[in-house]
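Fold this sequence, please.
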Amino acid sequence: MADSDCEIDGNQLIAKSLARFGVDCMFGVVGIPVTSLANRAVSLGVRFLAFHNEQSAGYAASAYGYLTGKPGVLLTVSGPGCVHGLAGLANAMANGWPMVMISGSCDQNDFGRGDFQELDQIAAVKPFSKFSVKAKAIKEIPDCVFQALAHTGLGRPGGCYLDFPSDVLHQTISDSEAEGLLGSAAERIREEKVVSVENSQIEEAASLLRHAERPLIVFGKGAAFSRAESALTNLVETTGIPFLPTPMGKGLLPDTHDLAATAARSLAIGKCDVALVVGARLNWLLHFGDPPKWSKDVKFILVDVCREEIELRKPHLGLVGDAKLVLEKLNKQIKDDPFCLGRSHPWVEAISRKAKENVSKLEAQLAKQVVPFNFLTPMKIIRDAICALGSPAPILVSEGANTMDVGRAVLVQTEPRTRLDAGTWGTMGVGLGYCIAAAVASPDRLVVAVEGDSGFGFSAMEVETLVRYQLPVVVIVFNNGGVYGGDRRSPDEINGPYKDDPAPTSFVPSAAYHIVIEAFGGKGYLACSPEELRSALAESFEARKPAVINVIIDPYAGSESGRLQHKN
């Protein structure tokens, strides 16, 4: 028999389909019935990053989709593995990142009879995915794979799901027939029609900005995903309009830019009369665009890839389209009829003055060296160490309540897509998964995680994964002994038969998190003083090897729930 007519099974055909589409990396946990699928994919040039838990692997896949612009792929076993993976799939949907979760499932003939790890997985994933499909026979595999991968990027990017029953994985087909099916599947994938904003809308947007007294440009991770940094820079520097990034929009323009309004956020959003919002949703992160945080008379120009989002928010003007493409058209329109506020414009001066005032106050606080550590002292030391590295800047991963909030104010982003945090959904536990995704997606960059001890705990075992793959990741744990920091109960809350138990917010005091990574051959550091922290940062940054720096923080520093105390 000719080689072209040899038989291949479902695992091989899935691997071929993934490779043919251009998938170059998968994250996941192997086991029944998908171990062979992982091995086959690796043999075809798809890198497989094996995790300890599907939840962390799912977070990695979602972040990989954001960082690369290509679908991140998660592989799980059936039943409980699929359920564990839902966290990553839901995170991708909430953040608008392209991702596919692939799960094995029980034999179709045994479904409904209590088979091993039986679950109606198509029904389970429905609330968390934009498209899901089950391959019921081997010949359906290429179409299913290509459809799911393509759907991740249609409209607003998001998560899709592929279900492969174990009997389908074991079916066989000739290699020549498989090649024909792959070719047909590729031909059927439609390219999304690029939505072109009407010239009249671009003209109206330019006119609104031109005639505004206090214009503001707001941008988020949707603009980062679109690679809109050049177009944004052109718009800001041509018009002289101040800008405000959302947390993961930081770095599209440097935080150090003269027109950055981050340090004058309350003034900027409270007083602007026209706000161009690009790739950012008017959700809780932007106070829904509502007063009193925003002026009741502000006119929003909302640029979003999703028409439904614009219809939901009802802005003064909605521009449906890719952020980069819309901004390029807007720049062309303004170039034909230019305007610029100038640094002496009253609005620009007001933003600049307030920003400098607030930065001065923060720097005065940072100048105080507090030991035992508060949050500010170690954060300044970390900021200085990261800034000293220059370009390419490290990718910063941040999670936690106080740790993330303080870090957002202190740490400086100067390059695009170099900040990953809890995101739209406020997801805790993303840290190590994001670190691994970032290291794989951007191998030329160091990855630095700055995490609270609670956030670290969700996925701490993945430090073994860092060591196994020798990834250039330094994890800095702000260890204040618990969620928000130790026992913060009031006297009237310490009652009942279990009053002597540790508080619900408490962990083991001064836990030796740095020892965990040493068990696997990584490097651990304990930092209780500025000198110890500086030394640990210098050594670990230079080594570019897996490391954990355990920074001991005063358990009473910071505040409960960080900046969201009103919601707790």
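The chain has a mean pLDDT of 95. DSSP finds 22 helices and 19 strands in the chain.
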